[in-house]
Amino acid sequence: MVTFRRKKVNVPMIAVTGGKGGTGKTTVAVNLAVGLNMEGLKVMLVDVDVDGPCCATLLGADLGVGEEVKIFRPLIDETKCVGCRRCVEVCHEHALFSLQGQTPILFEELCSGCKACQLVCQYGAIKDGWKTIGTIYTTDANGIRLVVGELRPTEPRSPMVARATVLRAVSELQSGGYDVAIIDTAPGVHNAVAQPLWVADFALVVTEPTPLGAHDLRFILDLARELELPAEIVLNKADVPGGSKDELLSISSERGIGIAAEIPMDDELLRSYLSGEPLVKRTPGSPAAKALLSLVRRVAKRLKGVESDGTTA
Q1: Structural domain tally of the chain?
Q2: pTM (2 decimals)?
Q3: Are residues 95 and 220 in the same domain?
Q4: Which of 88, 110, 132 is the last residue of a domain?
Q5: Which of 100, 124, 242, 262 has its CA 20 to 30 A from that of 41?
Q6: Using CA atoms, how far apart are residues 39 and 131, in angstroms rounded to an integer?
Q7: C-alpha–C-alpha distance, residues 21 and 303, integer Å
Q8: What is the pLDDT of residues 263-275, one digit of tens each?
Q9: Rounded alpha-carbon distances, angstroms, from residue 215 to 182, 210, 220
């Protein structure tokens, strides 16, 4: 493990990520979290795939009522607005429009909630308004703490909900007692993925032996390099017929990034999904479960090499 990065909490945070959707990232994250708990660690699992979170489904968890994620929306008092257009000029998102002397019109879907308009208004014409863009849920399931962020349908600002979810998780980690946090990111290399990677200490990049899997693996490894984030590759569906495993091994070699696990195809995974019980608990002797438990032991060994001050032992 590496020195703790960009956060005010001494708990290792491992991101499970991947450039392509459908590679099995959430399967790895959930079973890794549950497996580490089976090893005696106190684990938090953070689901920041806010466009379609499903860790709770794989854990058979009931999320209940969550906490709303809200962002600022300017409310313009027409009785105080003089139409100076300073708010329009300062808005980098071009969410405000007006002609000189007119009250600005807000294009709500463009507004990022930065409050720059309110800060430059000399007349007190812009008041606090708020808009709900998502929800954060917290619960306990299968012995682990689960924090889930979910974007409100039709909302475009997934990075803001992802960031709020990460901050909520870090806030709870500061209370102490946790040994590790596992972060299930969204697929891809966009801002909502970069948010959790920014606070992670290490990344497990899940991929599959397909042309698209190899293509997108390069992108997510590029992002990890830009963020100076150490990473290893998890090869899921490793024995899929006609797969391009050799290409993934070539990428691993040329990048100097190790293969942390090779997980085979396994019908028990589907049964695990349907039952809402993680594979490593339901059928620990199945081929995929054995590979996942081997990954658990690898990560647990790595974690034991981390001293309390966040440096490697």
Answers
A1: 2
A2: 0.89
A3: no
A4: 132
A5: 262
A6: 42
A7: 28
A8: 999 999 999 989 9
A9: 25, 9, 9
